[in-house]
Amino acid sequence: MLNFIYYPVSFILWCWHKVFGFVLGDNNAIAWILAIMFLTFTVRGIMFKPFVNQVRSMKKMQEFAPELKKIQKKYANDKQRQAAEMQKLQREHGVNPLGSCLPMLLQIPVFIGLNWVLRSFTNKPLDQKANNYFFDHAGVESYVNAKLFGVNIGDAIHHASVLGGTGGGWNWNVAPVAIPLMILASVLTHLTARHSTARQAAAATEANPQAAMMQKLTMYVFPLGVLVFGAFFPIGLLVYWLSNNSWTLMQQRLVYTRIDKEEAAKKAEAKEKRDALAPKPGAKPKPGQKPAQQAKAADEDKPETGGATPASNGGGKRSSKAGSPHRFADQPQRPQNGTAQQRKKPASGGKNSGQKGSGQKRR
Question: Is this prediction's pTM over 0.70?
Answer without folding.
Answer: no
